[in-house]
DNA sequence: AATTCCGGAGAACAGTTGTTAACTGCATGG
DNA sequence: CCATGCAGTTAACAACTGTTCTCCGGAATT
């Protein structure tokens, strides 16, 4: 099935990835709406015009970055929310997993948090789209849980979105604490855990 | 106490406000990190150099905008969260109030949501600072409620931050639906209400 | 082996940016 | 009434931007 692509397309994808990586790096200290295409090509060491061989504009590149950052995260989300063990265990696992993911891919997370409400409409739309898909995933997993018996479909989706937003908030908190001490990060993990716990408690008593 | 300032300082504050207003308008379709000072002065109809009489940089202007957008909101927050009537009544009142505030000041809210994780550090810091103060306000009001008896201080602050974040999320949702139909906005209000309700339920059963 | 394809380079374009310096006119305080 | 202060102007600066067109070299195709 997998066709080893010629050295031509290989080179193309290589510079394309270099452009994406360079852009992601530059976006740590600015927003996408101020990212110039020359800036990116300069960072890669390539002519400005080469940019057009890969992206129509920086906004287009941004949409690709959204895909790169969130596209492969769906399985991760599903297994995390999957109702297998205790609620508290699940929460602890989720917080731990978020902390690891942020530490491993800080630039991607920062990009998403920044551009979710950023100044470039297509990118905003792409992020909203991915987050909505996350919410659908979460909803599907929540529906399997016996706790969700008797719930309205709308309320289940509401809760799913609440969880997704919470995960992003948590990620953003860890992001700000990347340079901080171990104790500080532990404190943040504790707060994030308690937030999730409180929401889960609300969930259990929703139908009272 | 109030000293009517001379026609000199009056004119100065007038153009200063014009700069702020023009910037806020331009920021509806871009991020602060891409806002140029010439762009702003051009929109006002004033020489580029005049900008320096009022702000050191666009980042400086941004910090002022944060103050303008959030500075006067503290009393509003306190009275909204104040434990006077039923929890459900309080929530309905809060959602209604947020909807009105967003409809009345969309640009300010958009600016805050956008720059909260935006690319300009001083502005980010100013927003975080204001939000932290909101959380302190909310915590103080929550502490008055008998429901909060026996709560740890940390958990009370955790809940306060959760409420603050929730308000901003709700505001952002209303923002995206400004152009939408009345029914759509009503649907969003319903979802936001349910989110708050679920959190409040979690709060009531926190000490179980 | 000859030809086509195409990622990237190079140069040039009109227009933009932030910042500087020296100025002008008018409200202000003595 | 006159001298000072100061908001805003004008002009100029080097540096930067996105985009177009033309070209090159080497991989891909025939």
From TrEMBL, chains A, B:
GO molecular function: DNA binding
The keyword DNA-binding appears for this protein: yes
Residues covered by the HTH tetR-type domain: 13-73
PROSITE patterns named in the record: HTH_TETR_2 (PS50977)
DNA-binding region location: 36-55
Record flagged with keyword Ligase: no
Protein name: Transcriptional regulator
Organism: Streptomyces dysideae
């Amino acid at each position: 099935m997998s066709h080893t692509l010629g050295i031509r397309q290989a080179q193309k994808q290589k510079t394309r990835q270099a452009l994406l990586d360079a852009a992601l790096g530059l976006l740590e200290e600015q927003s996408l709406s101020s990212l110039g295409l020359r800036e990116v090509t300069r960072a890669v060491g390539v002519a400005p015009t080469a940019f057009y061989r890969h992206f129509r504009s920086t906004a287009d590149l941004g949409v690709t970055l959204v895909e790169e950052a969130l596209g492969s995260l769906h399985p991760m989300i599903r297994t995390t929310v999957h109702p297998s063990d205790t609620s508290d265990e699940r929460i602890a696992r989720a917080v731990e997993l978020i902390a690891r993911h942020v530490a491993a891919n800080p630039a991607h997370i920062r990009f998403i948090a920044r551009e979710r409400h950023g100044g470039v409409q297509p990118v905003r739309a792409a992020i909203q789209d991915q987050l909505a898909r996350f919410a659908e995933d979460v909803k599907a997993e929540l529906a399997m849980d016996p706790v969700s018996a008797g719930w309205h479909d709308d309320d289940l989706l509401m809760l799913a979105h609440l969880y997704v937003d919470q995960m992003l908030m948590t990620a953003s908190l860890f992001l700000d604490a990347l340079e901080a001490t171990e104790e500080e990060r532990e404190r943040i993990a504790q707060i994030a855990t308690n937030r999730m716990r409180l929401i889960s408690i609300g969930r259990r008593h929703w139908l009272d």
